[in-house]
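To whoever picks this up:

The nightly regression suite flagged Glycosyltransferase as changed. Nothing in the input moved, so I suspect the structure step. Input below, exactly as stored in the fixture:
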Amino acid sequence: MTTTATPLSAPPASPAPANPLTGKRRIAFASFVDENYLPGFLALLRSLALSNPDVCEDFLVLHDGLRPASVARIRALHPRIDFRRVDAGHYDSYAKGDQDNYLVRKAYFILDVFRVRDYDTVITLDTDMVVLGDLGELLELRDGLAAVPQFFYGQHKLNSGLLVIQREYLSDAFCARIDEVGRAGTYELDKHDQGILNAVLDGEFVQLDARYNFVKRRLSGDLPVPDSTAILHFTGRHKPWQGGEAGYREAEDRWHEFELSDAEFHAAYLALPGAKHHDLLVHYGTPHVRRTGSPEDARKVAASHIAAGEYQEAADLLGRVRIPVDESWPHEVLGHALMSVSRYEEARARLLLATASPNRAPTAFARLAQIAWIHGDDDAAAECALKGLAVDPTHRANRLMHKRTTDLTPPAEGPAAGQLAHVAFYMERQGNAGDKLLPESVRLAFGRDTGPHRWHSIHAHRLFDEAALERVNERRGLVIGGGGLFIPDTAPNGNSGWQWNVPDELLDRIDVPVMVYAVGFNAFDGQAYGHGRERFLSSLRRLVERASFFGLRNHGSIEKVRELLPASLHDKVRFQPCPTTVTRQLVDGWADPVRREDTVLINAAYDRSGLRFGHDYGHFLAEMATAVRELGTRAEVQCVAHSLDDERIAFDLRREHGIALPVIPMYDFDNDAIRDTYARTKLVIGMRGHAGMIPFGCGTPIISLISHPKMAYFLADIDRPEWGISVHDRHLGARLAERAAGLLDDHAATVADVHGRQQELWKVTEANAADLRVIQGGVTV
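Regenerated output under the current build:
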């Protein structure tokens, strides 16, 4: 439990967040380490990983000189270490004259943490601590400077071994206050950093429960460590690695639990139940697998690679392990990795082995069906899906694949010479509503006829083979878009590294105009291409070189893509807004609603939740509850779900906050119903990109819940950044309610503003359309 003291009489100002685009908090742990306390720090790192296996934040190691061997030992225990050398002379002016005393040096140097500027939250841990319990509450703290009150000196003083420091204290102003007190020498002598902080704060700090800094002295007389203890602090001069101290056997036994060799530590981490952080699992699991050759442990590490979009890494690791024929799960995971890098025949062999186990057969058959579908064999895909359903009739992936590949009626297409080929992600009926609308919206930008008479559809996720190449070259051009096709993990393949599964040699042989239209660079903060980066870069360069028109849907994507291209290709990358943002201009016979419903629609997204929310989901949900209650006094608030997972916000608000929201299942809507729903409401508050762009295109005011850079990119393009609020904003609920109220109170003016912003995007679209007509030889669809 935490209790908040009265704020400082002159609280530090809050600087901008470390990530200004999305506002996502950057969190780090920090310790001052030297050779004397190195054994304690190594035990601390092991204890942190074993007690919080799903937590891996950056760890700042403050030091005034460490041996290379010590640096290597530290790096072996944590994948995100940042060594920062402190100024040994900085505290000479602190008037105590005892800087040669190690404890004093250590106390002073931890004050350097307040000079950190690239994190929003820093959690300090003394090197004589071990972590025994969940630190989730500390990671979720967002306000003030938090610490445990001193055990012996009452509630008005803090014990500085554990500090949770928010960004307003990581500032020049607060450091100046520390320096002022330090130079004046008016603080207590017992522990100098502690004395300085207590003098500066004067008891005004967020008080944490003692279990987060449970001092050894409380256990005198060999008392056992309470089960509730989260952090055990070995205060005093006698440390466990130095022989310890009489009367504290139970406590020191807990410390010695973490005195492990690397091999013992890796094995202990891999054996833990429950969720594990990708970075930790890979860092510890990779050497463990190389040492032991364990197929099961290799499966765990490879699955983590796959979840992070690191498919080649998964295939390499698991491919080096000898997997017995009857161990189905490792075969299934290896098959998944191999198909994701387009080694399809090898993948088939592994997945067929996996079908021998009833537990793994449904998923294995679903992947076999996917491989058959990728290769254009609908009959084989349907057969595999049916086999999977025979084992598990409830298996959703098999059910969807069977539906996708049976009872197909090919559309009656017009003459090839009069058609454009269109590479896109064609979404099934219960798929993401935004992706469902996109292909038609792109086609509307080329003309009124969006049907098979004028268009030949090519699903981006199916292998672009010789037959597909021949069909494209029979048409008069190829359109690629729209949507966020430049992302590594939505439809992984080793041919291109992005969503279109096209080998280089076939891309090079396309001999009709190639028009890349309103594509987005959709990587999240912290999402990388791994070993597939070079494959993606090569494919991207070829595509830009080959394209007659290369339009990206926001300037943020333009900047990202230009960074990946040689300078000679930069000018080919141009701005083409997503056509959903100009829907009113594109849809034939569009009429704005005479009257809007008295509703506000809220959308939240849950794919890649860790990348969206970090440790702030509980905060987000509570703030949304505040906003929904306030908005409910003005209009009926409803949840609009672009996909099935989007309904979670309605479930969570009801369970956690007693708020019931009606749910609009937009994933079941056709395109006209999607546009109609968004055109008739008064305001849309959305987290998905197209929960902003589609209503905006229909003339409806929007507020974006920013959890992905693309939301900020779009708002920057329309010069309305105030229409977005980070999901991490400390005061999200109040600010969202206030901004929504402003838009609703002056609704007519807001709608007019939306129309004006849209007109600017339409001018760009019209100018590009003129160029596209020239590229197509003056012909329109």
